[in-house]
Design brief:
It is a single chain. The protein is α/β, with parallel strands linked by helices. The protein has three helices and five strands, in the order αβββαββα. The strands form two sheets. The protein has a three-stranded parallel sheet, sandwiched between helices. β2 and β3 form a beta hairpin.
């Protein structure tokens, strides 16, 4: 599903779409994707956060979530996607 560039659309998709996991950029047109992440986590979905922000700028509730800081290489992204997929499989998604 995606890419989704608008916050309102992302909120709707996060609430009802059949997903196994999600990769989200913290910045999204319309604000930050924090509420989207909250919905996905409440559904039990593993997430990967992409951001040029340091951990200290994220809400404390998201500090333990997988995060790939920008800029990143293709190899780093590949590794994180593989890890995310393993987490999704292990969570039964």
């Amino acid at each position: 599903v995606g890419p989704i560039a608008e916050l309102d659309e992302a909120l709707g998709v996060a609430a009802i779409a059949a997903l196994g996991c999600a990769i989200l950029d913290i910045n999204i047109r319309g604000g930050h994707s924090y509420l989207v992440v909250d919905i996905l986590l409440k559904r039990g979905l593993p997430v990967l956060l992409l951001s040029s922000y340091g951990e200290q700028t994220l809400p404390e509730r998201l500090h333990e979530e997988a995060r790939l800081p920008k800029p990143f290489t293709g190899a780093q992204l590949d590794k994180e996607i593989r890890d995310l997929c393993v987490r999704a499989v292990n969570s039964g998604r």
